[in-house]
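dude i think i finally got it to work??
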Amino acid sequence: MNKKVLDRSSYDRRYAVLAAIMLGSIMGPIDASIVNVVLPTITQFFNVSISTAQWVPMIYLLTISSLLLFYGRLGDIIGYKRVYLTGLICFVIASTLCGFSPSIYWLITFRAIQGLAAGMMMAVPYAIITAVFPPAERGKIFGLNALSISAGLAIGPSLGGFITSSLGWRFVFLINIPIGLAGLLWGRYVIPNLKGQTGKIDIPGAVTAFISLFSLLLFINCLQSSGLNYSTISMILVAVLAGVAFLKIESNVKQPMLFLGLFRNATFSFASVSALLNFMAQYVMVFLTPFYLQRVLHYPPNRVGLIMTSFPLAVMLVAPFSGSLSDRVGTRLLTCFGAGISALALLLMSQVPVSANAADVMWRLALFGLGTGIFQSPNNSAVMGSVPKSHLGVASGILASMRNVGMVLGIATGGAVLYTFASPQVLQRTALNSMETSAFLSGLKYAYMAGGILCVCASCTSLVRHKEVKTGKELT
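look at this
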């Protein structure tokens, strides 16, 4: 009798941990989607150029992505709970500073700090979930965790518009304070103290990894606006040299920040690549579709936000079920099928006519969300189930890095294809003539097709598995 009570108590506590993680995880997607909506308002408020204001979202993404690997390894050493909660409290403080920024440059600085904190929150949740829940429930739990991310993306645009119109843009950042404090208090109480492999922090590896990733992502962002010049070429050279130095360091140091042996496992390697390709395709869709809705269909921003929510809502509805199903049937076929549906949705988006209505776009976005929801939870389960417990933090950091780098690469890919047919000046206009509309739609068509090709590649890499993940068996 006592054993049953203990088991039930342990079961309830696991789900309390999941709820605490989800509460903290929802802030990142909300913050990212809200800021994109209010960026024009911030630009006007501080009376600055768009090129200056664009650093508000860009510096946030750059700092997050550049430190995810380090934070993952740090969690293995000092504990996932400590890294996660430190990130949460720093995120609340940085959000407060953002809300009271006296100038655009202070806002950019505080956004960089906010990104440093958000990286801690994003790097270790997968490790905590994998350590707390048994393998037989992993797919289901990853699906439930996806609800918080999808919900954040779904409510962010509408919430941002409502807060800005009612209270002002500063409250877009201040809204993080009550959510973050609730997540901090709850997480401190329920999240257990978990660690991976103990050891020392690999400082040279951390520094070279940061320089390489930061330079690479900065190169991608600047290439689109500046093209190849002395500055951008220098960025990519620094990224390559730092990357080579990082790999050399990790191959020789006794306690590396990134255990390269993880990539000998085919499941880990190919599922990670699949995640990268999927997020690239996602952000081709997410980045380009609002331009179509605004420039061609002439929808106002609030309607654009509502239409775009059909994608994360579909993910939110499907992900828990695909995760649970992967626990029983394995991950290979589900991830392959989901990526295939996403490819089909992008192909259908490439055929959207100039005379389309909101419903024509929404069902295509929902179909893309269906495919993404089927793909993501089983793929995350495959990645995290293929590594030993001592390296869960590093694996969680790699998975988060694939997500963020995929976002940047997806925006760059979609933008590069679109700008081949339509100049940036054309995209800034609120009304297009017939020739400009034709050029825009041609670029949009081929950009969506490029996204579809990325999904086809993700579908193929999803078929490569060292050993099928099902019925709760661990990979070794």
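The chain has two domains: 2-201+257-461, 202-256.
im so relieved honestly
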